[in-house]
Specification:
There is one protein chain. By secondary structure, this protein is an alpha+beta fold. It contains seven helices and seven strands. Helix 5 runs antiparallel to helix 6. The longest helix is centred in the first third of the chain and has 23 residues. The chain is extended and about 80 Å long. 18% of the residues are buried.
Length: 273
Amino acid sequence: MENKDKNKKIMENAFLKVKKYLDKIPFIGYSESTFCTSNLYSEVPWYEYKDGKYYEFFEERGKIIEKMVFSTEDEIVDYIISDIISRYAFEYELENRHYFEDNLRVVDTIEEFCYNLIGKKNHHKRHNYDDEWAIISDLVYFYRKKCIELKEKYKDDNIDINDIDYIINRGYADNPSGGMSNPKQSIKKAHDKIKIIEKKFPETIEYFKIYEKFYDKIKFDCISSNLNINCFACNKKSQINISNIPSNQKTIYCKCPNCDAELKIGNPNYINN
């Protein structure tokens, strides 16, 4: 019992160091449930010190799982601080979302600001941002929002709204939930349909015009609809349509249009998602 109490005290000393750092960040709040030395709360990890090491545990479906092991007090302190700052940064981003840019940029900015306040180095800086994907996802959000309003406005009128339904029902996507294996091709389809809607409903022109500057930021020059191939079997050149090949498919398997030989070709539109 004496050894157990001693180990608990060592763990609590580590918690005190964490709190001293977090107190330098006035806008971050934390719950005492963050600093558990036993399994007191459902779905909340707890920490123990034993055999000269620091452990993080959590319970899943009644089974206790050892998640992390740390050799020194500094390691466990840095880990808990990192976890709390990271969770705060993502919560902040959700409440203060910047449309048409990668949300990780906001997360990184908040994390870096927090680490500067406590005088520690941020080891989790993200460097690669995908603003194009953010632009595409936000564009379809605002396209659908307006189309839903239009459908409600003209629901009792005898007007063709098939183009509006195309956007609302995500006809540009691979499935009704909005999944897009080739986001650039999907947003181009949606944008083409928006141009048709503008002609049918001129009152929408000013609304959609606001988002045109973001659409213009998407680089479509890397998209190839057709691919020139040189068959190894018949040595004849031909062209195949690859507009329906998903951008996350690295290799294209097809047959030569001339001799029916099976070909394996790299996808020029491949994007590593």
